[in-house]
Amino acid sequence: WTRNEQHSLAPFHPPEIHSVDLAGLALELALWGVADPGQLRWLDPPRTGPFRQALHLLRALDGLDEAGRITATGRQLATLPVHPRLGHLLLTARSMGQTGLGCDLAALLSERDPMRGNRAAATASLALRLDLLADWRQGGDGRARGAGVDPHLCRRIDRTARQWLRMLKDRPGVTDPAAIGPLLVSGYPDRVARRRPRQRDRYLLTSGKGAMLPPADPLATCEYLAIAHLDGGQGDGRIFLAEGLSLDTVRREHGHLLTVREQVDWDDTLARVVAVRRERLGEIVVAEQPLTDVDPETVRAALREGIRRMGPSCLPWSREARQFQARVLCLRTWRPEEDWPDLGDEALIGDLAWLDPFLTGLDRADHLGRLDLVGIFHTLLGWDRQQRLARLAPVTWTVPSGSAIRLDYRIGETPVLAVRIQELFGLTETPAVCGGTVPLLLHLLSPARRPIQVTSDLAGFWRRGYPEVKKELKGRYPKHFWPDDPLLAEPTRGVKRTGRPA
């Protein structure tokens, strides 16, 4: 190889223990009584993730109990010189009286696919491969070649199957093709799949991952599959070897894989609480029916989860509610020593206990419109804090003209009073809230409510800004709108316009 290739080579091959299936190793350790591989000294210790997956698989194969101790089945598996998956398949085949079929199936799965490269057979069916193996046994190499199958591989599969049959001290009997699916499930309980709705060749595995059949595979007519070989692509893995399966067979032969649970959850798609009784096969929902007479607290808990997912915007905010929120948050900033609650969006969504008493009878996003946030906030404050809020951060401010003008509170900003200049005539100091400690930001408007100037220093505006405003606008409105000394003039309520702007 070239010098550049030499420099790009790894210093040594990676340890095999980092790349192989660890189920056999985990079973051997359990047989020794070692639950934690960290108790032993290793040249290269097994990685935590793959070892944990191996333990999970052994529990699914009944090789370990929930505490990680080896079971009677596990001790039997440890005596077989095959992977625990194939070992459990062989033991199940013997218990079903299908030892010959089990040995053929396990031998076929332990070797290279005899139909690999045969484009005419675009199917993952294991039943077809077992039929071809039977044809080879009857007709020899010529018939195998005619079917596009490697006869040398058939010979090796047959030899392996016979060895395992002798090992199990049994004889081949009458085979039942219907047993192929259940036998595959016994060795691959994590690879049962159900066809996705309205998708002919795409399936959902019990693990939650996706898988797909080769194009136009006849197996696509099966709603359920037991899968032996598939790749581990980023998207849907391609299925190479599988067989059809019925749900009734799973219930009859592998009922322990099915779980039934009553669930009350928030459905993001429907935007509502869904209460159902679900029968599941891992991540596959096998059957479901709606629940009645659900505990109201459970429904409220699911609705709270939905509100968290949707965020604060799902609540029926009005301008009045947002202003109430801003007034309280402003007082938290202005008077941190006082006991003002945190009504910020993050705090409200983070702990929805404040909303819980008002969620009774609600179970969908549309129902949230019934909530009165302002009333709820008043309840949250209590009487004393309501009175302090009205005094320190009033909703309106009465100007010299007698008008009660609504203030605009903004979180982290100075409250705004938008008012016509003429309604402030005679007022010398800038209005202030929070006991006179927070001056308002005045948005001064023309008689037509057009913005003229923004100031937080009203006295300075009368001295410096008003003469300029008067000079600029006196031609647009009658003369009496602009007195020479606004501090001595009478404020005008409503400021009815008597002339058209220039």
What class do helices, strands and sheet pairing give?
A: alpha+beta
Order of helices and strands: HHHHHHHHHEEEEEHEEEHHHHEEEEEEEH
Please work out how many helical segments DSSP would assign: 15
Strand order of the largest sheet: 1-2-3-5-4
Strand content: 15-25%
Descriptive keywords:
37% helix, elongated, five-stranded mixed beta barrel, 502 residues
Write a concise synopsis of the structure shown.
The protein is α+β, with helices and mostly antiparallel strands and 502 residues long. The chain has 15 helices and 15 strands. 37% of the residues lie in helices and 16% in strands.
Protein described:
With 502 residues, the protein is an alpha+beta fold. The protein has 15 helices and 15 strands. A 5-stranded mixed β-barrel has the order 1-2-3-5-4. A hairpin with a 4-residue loop joins β2 (202-205) and β3 (210-212). 30% of the residues are buried.
Which helices and strands appear, and what pairs or packs with what?
Layout (H helix, E strand, L loop, with lengths): L2 H6 L14 H10 L15 H13 L11 H8 L4 H13 L2 H12 L15 H21 L4 H17 L12 H8 L4 E4 L6 E4 L4 E3 L11 E7 L6 E9 L1 H7 L4 E10 L4 E10 L2 E7 L5 H15 L8 H16 L10 H6 L22 H20 L3 E3 L5 E3 L9 E5 L11 E2 L4 E2 L1 E5 L5 E5 L2 H16 L29
Helix pairs in contact: 2-3, 2-4, 4-5, 5-6, 5-9, 6-8, 7-8, 12-14
